[in-house]
Amino acid sequence: MTGSRLVRLIERQCEELAIALTAKLRQSERTSEFQKIPVEELQKTAAELYHSLAMWLVTKTEKDVERHFVAIARRCAGDGISLQQFVWALAISRSHLHRFLLGQAFVDSIFELNSELELHQLLNQFFERATYYGVVGYEEARERGRVKSAATRVHRQGTQQASDAIK
Length: 167
What we know:
Layout: H1 4-12, H2 14-27, H3 39-51, H4 53-59, H5 62-78, H6 83-104, H7 110-166
């Protein structure tokens, strides 16, 4: 796999990366709503992603990315996290990973340089898709909320009409 040395390093240090990312998410004003989510849950989600990074970059399909990030977005929307803060959290996640990789990078050959560049390209593509499908998940959650609100209104109107008929 492209950049496999760095991917293995990320996977080995997934817990430390997740702890640092969680701290960044909880400290940033642009992601303050993530304080609603327990620290352990944020760390677990990030650690799982980092731990299986090679799978996400190489073997997972776009449909897998869609399912995963639509589900995460729906959960975040349900937890009261705004779309802006969700998108910014993904940007922080990408930046956090890139900074980590820059700190670890040492290239001995043109092949290794090419390999690292390809890894950065795969990571960018992954985070672009995660952002896109996250927005899709928020739109689906919003639409479900509209349908639920409309059904509640119809139910209330029917209850009120039945109550009025009895009087």
